[in-house]
Amino acid sequence: MSSQDALEEKIGEGLVRIGAMTEEQVYKVLKFQKDGDSRLFGEIAVDLGFVDIQAIIDYLKMTNKG
């Protein structure tokens, strides 16, 4: 697992923790990435309608990653 994969999993876990996404939705986004989608976790999640961009921004602000 690359460091990018680990970062994306952390974002997914965090979004589940705050109730913005379900574990199943996170799994689906990670599967897109595993299957070759090079977009960021948040881009895929927003495009699939799983989460809105503001929830991702809020999460990143909370974790000081953004």
Write the layout of secondary structure elements.
Layout: H1 3-17, H2 23-34, H3 41-47, H4 53-63
Describe this structure in words.
The chain has 66 residues and is mainly alpha-helical. The chain is built from four helices and no strands. The termini are far apart.
Task: Give a short summary of the structure.
The protein is mainly α and 66 residues long. The protein has four helices and no strands.
Query: Which segments are poorly predicted (pLDDT under 50) over 5 or more consecutive residues?
Result: none
Question: Which sequence of SSEs, written as H and E, runs from N to C?
Answer: HHHH
Overall mean pLDDT: 86
What count of helical segments does DSSP give? Answer: 4
Estimated radius of gyration = 11 Å
Tell me the span between the first and last alpha carbons: 22 Å
Report the principal-axis shape. globular
Helix content: 55-70%
Tally of domains: 1
Query: How large is the share of residues in beta strands?
Result: under 5%
Structural class: mainly alpha
Biggest sheet architecture: none
DSSP summary, beta strand count:
0
